[in-house]
């Protein structure tokens, strides 16, 4: 068989996983089926809630399930793994340590992509779990990029969109992103990161919000996976900004 086999550790959430697989297809430079990335996806919807655990609202850690699923994909012959859930990267080190194949670090790659296009202060829209763990802050600081999270009212709006609307299968007006991004621009951010794959699903196709460029972590992950699988991405000159 040709090309590396990519395991997709999904289910967190299921619609975002399906959208990630769609973006893999859409962002690969391909003329036929055989030009696309070989993938094996496990949409494990039984993985415990990541945000609830990180915030101390649940004692059910998702780590054991993440490791079990990752090892299953490895045993099936996958050469690398994609984890299309930003918040799950709060367990990245333990997951990677339990596997013999590399896991693409979506948060790290997104911070690097933002830095590569000259962004100096990113405003990150994500779950409260991602914010509490400061996942983007840690990775951005390594690159000399400032990271700002929303004020409490804006974070509450982001949570409602993620958990009460997207995960519930409800349509979200694209204009809702403007309301989330405007306070970040007012705080001096020069770019907005969609740091939750449910937000990627809700606002797919949006290139700017409140006058700021949008950096989509899910698209960054897709491009990184495509390249590491040995295929050319359509957005090879720019990993972070939507084309």
From TrEMBL:
Gene3D superfamilies per UniProt: 3.40.50.1860
Record SUPFAM superfamilies: Aspartate/glutamate racemase
Keyword annotations of the record: Isomerase
GO terms of molecular function: amino-acid racemase activity
Pfam families named among the record's database cross-references: Asp_Glu_race (PF01177)
Family membership: Belongs to the aspartate/glutamate racemases family.
Identification of the protein by name: Aspartate racemase
Organism, as annotated: Adlercreutzia hattorii
């Amino acid at each position: 068989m040709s090309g590396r086999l990519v395991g997709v550790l999904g289910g967190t959430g299921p619609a975002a996983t399906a959208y990630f697989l769609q973006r893999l297809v859409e962002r690969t430079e391909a003329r036929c089926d055989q030009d696309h990335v070989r993938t094996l996806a496990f949409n494990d919807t039984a993985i415990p809630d990541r945000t609830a655990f990180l915030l101390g609202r649940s004692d059910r850690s998702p780590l054991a399930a993440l490791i079990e699923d990752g090892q299953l994909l490895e045993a099936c012959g996958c050469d690398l793994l994609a984890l299309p859930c930003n918040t799950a990267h709060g367990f990245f080190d333990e997951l990677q340590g339990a596997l013999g194949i590399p896991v693409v670090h979506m948060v790290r790659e997104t911070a690097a992509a933002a830095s590569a296009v000259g962004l100096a202060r990113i405003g990150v829209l994500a779950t409260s779990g991602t914010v509490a763990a400061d996942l983007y802050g840690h990775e951005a600081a390594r690159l000399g990029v400032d990271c700002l999270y929303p004020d409490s009212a804006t974070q509450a709006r982001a949570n409602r969109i993620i958990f009460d609307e997207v995960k519930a299968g409800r349509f979200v007006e694209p204009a809702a992103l403007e309301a989330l991004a405007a306070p970040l621009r007012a705080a001096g951010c020069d770019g907005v990161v969609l740091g939750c794959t449910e937000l990627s699903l809700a606002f797919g196709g949006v290139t700017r919000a409140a006058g700021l460029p949008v950096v989509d972590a899910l698209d960054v992950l897709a491009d990184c996976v495509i390249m590491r699988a040995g295929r050319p991405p359509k957005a090879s000159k720019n990993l972070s900004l939507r084309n």
